[in-house]
Amino acid sequence: MIGTTDFTTEKAVEMEWALLPALLKEWHEETWLKERLVESVQREFALLDNPDFGQQFYQYCQLKGTQASDYMYKCWQLSDGGTVITSIRFFGTNLAKPFVELVHRDFHIDSIVHLQSVANEVYEYHKIFNPKYLRLFDGQGIFSDEEENISYDLHYVAAPISFIKQLPLPQRYNDLQLTIPNSIDLFYEKYKHSFEQLLVEQPHYKELISLESKEDLFQLLAQKTLFCVEIDGQWAGLVAAEQRQEQYLRGFCVIEELLDKEWRGQGFGVALQRHLIERLPAQDNDLIYGTIDDKNMPSLKTAFRVGRKSIGKYVFCKMLEAM
């Protein structure tokens, strides 16, 4: 039911700290992490029953039968006494693919049975959208591939840059080089062509990746974190990262990594990422991180071979009411 609860920002921060991936607690200072958690929780609590947010979301979607209040963050008390904060979302901004995000909760979910119960009850709160899934972040590795009604979305894959720099250089490291583009226009045409060719070769990637804009890449060029990949003196692809903080992740996020067909499957991917890491203007405790779709096994394997580790993944639980 919806109504008054004693779920405070302090309780939410306490639970988020308990759910935080253990590796992050090794990589970052406790004080800094808790400050970031407080900021994140406060931002999300500010969206609870926020009419301005609801109206903006509604103006974008305007699904038949809905109103602005349906799009607001909501706090619900479950039948077992637990409290959740949820929000309606759309996979890939596709309005035909609604799901519910489990933003915060004041209890642990330690089994698929418990998760399924939560998902089914939450469905009732958002049934105007007929959502198909409940999504949450699993930073403890609770759920496995074999679970019924469970599927996975994005993995967060990260590692301290200083740690990776201490590892031996990978094979083929000396067989490629990174250069800074001289012209963003010429560079973008090459990038666009390589991207379109990849989608021709791998059509299923259309739901997993998207073309970066020229404007965004220009910003990365200004940061000197955008590079052409050259093999045997010729264009072979590109790689780019952005220096930023994403909640409790601090460092450089991998924005794009693309090799042309003739160079893929030859061990260049690991060498490419290591070159990028060596070129980044990293500070102490900066991470190299990014999200990789669960279905994109080649990219996951490459990231693991570089030295990055999965710190968690988004889990989708099918709502039985939507079956």
Describe the structure.
With 323 residues, the chain is an alpha+beta fold. It has two domains: 9-154 and 315-322, no CATH class; 168-306, Gcn5-related N-acetyltransferase (GNAT) (Aminopeptidase, 3-Layer(aba) Sandwich). It has ten helices and eleven strands. A hairpin with a 7-residue loop joins strand 2 (83-90) and strand 3. Helix 1 crosses helix 3 (30-45) and helix 9 packs across helix 10 (297-306). The mean pLDDT is 92.
Give the mean pLDDT. 92
Global outline: globular
| Helical fraction | 25-40%
Structural class: alpha+beta
Q: How would you sum up the major sheet?
A: 11 strands, mixed
Q: How far apart lie the N and C ends?
A: 23 Å
Query: Per DSSP, what share of the residues sits in E-state strands of 2 or more residues?
Result: 25-35%
Number of DSSP helical runs: 10
Placed side by side, the strands forming the largest sheet appear as 1-2-3-4-11-5-10-9-8-7-6
Low-confidence stretches: none
Counted up, domains total 2
Q: Count the E strands.
A: 11
> What is the string of SSEs from the N terminus onward?
HHHHEEEHEEHEHHEEEHEHE
Radius of gyration: 21 Å
List the helices and strands and how they pair.
Blueprint: H1 9-19, H2 22-27, H3 30-45, H4 51-61, E1 74-77, E2 83-90, E3 98-105, H5 112-125, E4 133-138, E5 150-160, H6 161-165, E6 177-179, H7 184-201, H8 214-223, E7 226-231, E8 234-246, E9 249-259, H9 268-279, E10 287-293, H10 297-306, E11 309-318
Parallel strand pairs: 3-4, 9-10
Antiparallel strand pairs: 1-2, 2-3, 4-11, 5-10, 5-11, 6-7, 7-8, 8-9
Helix pairs in contact: 1-3, 9-10
